[in-house]
UniProtKB/TrEMBL annotation:
Pfam families per the UniProt record, alphabetical: CCG
Domain Cysteine-rich: start-end pairs: 4-83, 127-221
GO CC field: cytosol
InterPro entries per record: Cys_rich_dom (IPR004017)
Protein's UniProt name: Glycolate oxidase
Cited PANTHER family: LACTATE UTILIZATION PROTEIN A, UNCHARACTERIZED PROTEIN YKGE
Superkingdom field: Bacteria
Annotated GO MF terms: oxidoreductase activity
Amino acid sequence: MKIGLFIPCYVDQFYPQVAIATLQLLEKLGLDVDYPLNQTCCGQPMANSGFEKYAKGCDALFTKNFAQYDYIVSPSGSCVLHVKEHLHDDKNPAAAEHIRGRVYELCEFLTDILKVKDLEARFPHKVGFHISCHGQRGLHLSQMSELVAEDFSKPGYLLNMVKDLELIPLNRKDECCGFGGTFCVSEEAVSVKMGKDRVQDHLQHQAEYITGGDMSCLMHLEGILRRQKSPVKVVHIAEILNGSYA
């Protein structure tokens, strides 16, 4: 299969090591991965702020860049969900529809498409996993705690393959961190309080690292940890699964 690697703009600009880890992990699993050099923002910031009409150029460029791939994989649940639900191209609707049905967040691609059973990675640390709202409630990467239903976690399933990694419990395992894209700008005080509560849950259970599938949420938590002068670090799940972060 031919894979198109979709790297969100904030990952490209601020956390390129996450993009590299994602590429390396997919290649270790024997995949033919291509990175379209002309890709830019998927348009989510404009759409989330109520200016979806200004994202049409992003939609057209995204369609042009990724229409030829069997699957599109990205280390970002929020960007993937945006593309799944909102990508449209008036000039090439069939290509946009193809992409909407073939774009996957990294963890769901590994579990649902590749059906990975084993990973060569080791991470001898206590790790707390933050499940982002888009990933959980939009992509259904894990079960929502308010439902009386069978519990599951696709990222947790993968992390349990990592040697010597201790996945710690949390009191409120699916609580929002408060980032919410532009929400952290328009409702700064609420966002910070939510982030502090999320961090405290991890600290209470003695996490050494906080991981997740969205660097946007982890960036928010990282800022709070730094202001608290905490030794706890954040790391994207791709870096752990790839064995590139020790």
